[in-house]
Amino acid sequence: MKEDLINKQSGMEIGIYTLADLGPNPHTGKTISAQQRIAEIIEAGKMADEAGLDVFGVGEHHRLDYAVSAPPIVLSALSQVTKQIKLTSATTVLNTVDPVRLFEDFATLDLLSNGRAEIIAGRGAFIESFPLFGYDLNQYDELFEENIELFLKLNADEKVTWNGQFRSSLKNADIAPRPAQKNIPLWVGVGSTQKSAERAGRLGTGLALPILGGDPNSFRPLVDVYLQAASQAGHAPEDLKVGVTGHSFISETTQQAKDEFYPYYSNYWGYLNRQHGKSMQMSRADFEQFSAPETALFVGSSQQVIEKILYQYELFGHHRFIAQMDIGGLPFKKVAENIERLATEVAPVVRRETSK
């Protein structure tokens, strides 16, 4: 069944995403403003579109050390300066957003972009949105289950009657506007829990796997559970999609990539751990282990990154790979160089090999 996930004509979709973190440059100690960060994200999206990449994602956080709390607004700006690239959230914190408002926002984005809007839904790495919008973190799973089922109903029907636990009822409500596409593609981001993978399969959404390090084999059971649940629920194999997301940095040689990226990668995990109340640091020895050929960290030469993507394709048969490059205070010049390498050196080979 995994082989059916790929469009045999075009091969795997390749793209990039950003979480818009506002980290200091480890070499200068300077942190750019949220305004500059968003401007650079818009420029990165334009570059990715012009270079022929397939997908551009923008994450959601509700903290001062991240620049984007409203992905549909940033994606709408991107829709006006791009032509072909798909525009997705990465991720939408579905537990703490009204599904009706979410649908309206992304249906509007879909109209503005001529049918290029998508959503990756998940819990996210932080919990600030729960108290911010008045939700109980202890009801995380119940909120997610109710909101995703309601969103799928909104996605399918122009008029909806619905009753639930956490929001007001709907009675023959107009759900407008309708998107340019038949419906808005919805993926569920699943980090490690088989229950979440099973739910994605049961509901027939896409499955997005954030594989940030370690042995990619450990994620294979999630794909198996997803496909099995989808089959049991009667979803057609051609309607199922698996995506992989991961940190990436590409340079002329693997050694050069590791030398250039380590200060930013170590810096990223340093401030991310502090944001979560931890004081863990990443040594160069740890980084060497993280970036070894058999691991999931996409750092190296173009050939090294190609090999890692194709190895994971053998495991998952996935439809999409999107890379996160702009972390740890990485200067935009380096981000731009990576977009170019991914689009011109990595994507053509991966598409060719996965379309066979």
Give a verbal description of the structure.
The chain has 356 residues and is of the alpha/beta class. It has a single domain, classed as TIM Barrel. It is 42% helix and 17% strand. It has eleven helices and twelve strands. The protein has helices at 34-50, 71-79, 99-112, 129-132, 140-156, 194-203, 220-232, 254-275, 284-290, 302-316, 332-354, and strands spanning 13-18, 55-58, 86-89, 92-93, 117-122, 159-162, 170-174, 186-189, 206-210, 242-251, 298-301, 320-324. Strands 1-2-3-5-8-9-10-12 form an eight-stranded parallel beta barrel, surrounded by seven helices. A two-stranded antiparallel sheet has the order 6-7. Strand 2, helix 2 (71-79) and strand 3 form a beta-alpha-beta unit. Helix 1 (34-50) packs parallel to helix 11 (332-354) and helix 2 packs parallel to helix 3. The longest helix has 23 residues, at 332-354. It is globular and about 60 Å long. Residues 1-9 have low confidence and may be disordered.
